[in-house]
Amino acid sequence: MEEGTKAKKTVFVGGVAEEVDESKIYETFSTFGDIIEVQLPPANTNPHQPPDGKHRGFAFVTYGSSADAQDAIDNMDMNELSGHVLKVNLARPMKTPMQLGGNRAVWESEEWLKEHVKPLAESGGVKARTQQEETSESKDEDAMEE
Predict the structure, then answer these.
(1) Measuring CA to CA, how many Å separate 34 from each of 19, 62, 73?
(2) What are phi and psi of 17, to 5 degrees?
(3) Residues 107-145: pLDDT tens digits?
(4) CA-CA distance, 58 to 60, in Å (whole number)?
(5) Whole-model pTM?
(6) Distance (Å, whole) CA 92 – CA 88
(7) For residue 140, what is the enclosing H or E element?
(8) HEC-encoded secondary structure of 113-137
(9) Are 39 and 3 in contact (CB under 8 A)?
(10) Measured by CB atoms within 10 angstroms of the end CB, which terminus of the chain is less buried, N or C?
């Protein structure tokens, strides 16, 4: 299945109560069509710790057809499940590492470096700055003497 097609068949379910599990989500959302997969991401993101059974408060339900997914959105958005109001909409694909960008410094990108950074010989580096400061200090001293 193509990634774009899968995205149109997958719905995001937000506001899932702590006591709700995958079987309850499956049972509730199966009335709208054939479900291929139900994902309830665990709250524990540390792979070194055993899962504690808690989830992050949202789920993904993948349907066999995009029409079924739309039916689920139309009927379940802003409805209640186990005392919590659900927010149901079409799931968006995960951002790729290049789209995220927020956690990476701009100078880690080769394109940015090529565009903005001069080779050390051309930039002058610390030596050039020191010479420039010495020159401006001597000019200041000359101006004070006059």
Answers:
(1) 24, 9, 14
(2) -65, 155
(3) 667 777 777 777 666 666 666 666 666 766 665 555 555
(4) 7
(5) 0.59
(6) 12
(7) helix 125-145
(8) HHHHCCCHHHHCHHHHHHHHHHHHH
(9) no
(10) C
